[in-house]
Design brief:
Lysozyme, 44% helix
Amino acid sequence: MPQNTRSINYEADVNVKAFLKLIRYAEHGSESDRVYYKLYGGKREFTDTSTHPLEEPIEAWGSKSTAAGAYQILNGTWYEAKKRGIASDFTPFSQDKIAIWLLHTKGAMKHVTSGDVEKAIVAVRGTWVSLPGGSRQQITMAEAKKRFEKYVTECNKQ
């Protein structure tokens, strides 16, 4: 995370919360919190959140990956986040922190906080390939914008 943003509480920002929920939905097609415990392919779950659950890739959809959790975080990304002090485990809170860190590193955070969903998605669709324009797109840009607005409204009520 850039030095000048460490004091900002992105976890509490409504647009950030809504965008994270949008990513989770795009990656899993579900609004359930169970997605925090899903392995690549979505058919299996893990329970141990002390570390990233996959050392070896598993196969789904004709390819192999170590992607796991709500944001389908690769084990290499998790190890880098751990090394940098972003996360020390793989709990839902830590997965959110890693996703926020990735939004920063991909240059999307300014677009997320300003509510510019399209620019934010363009910046991160290579990381979250289920987003519109990604290599495994699961939702359209129109649906993404509509869901983001819905999630902003929901987050404002919390």
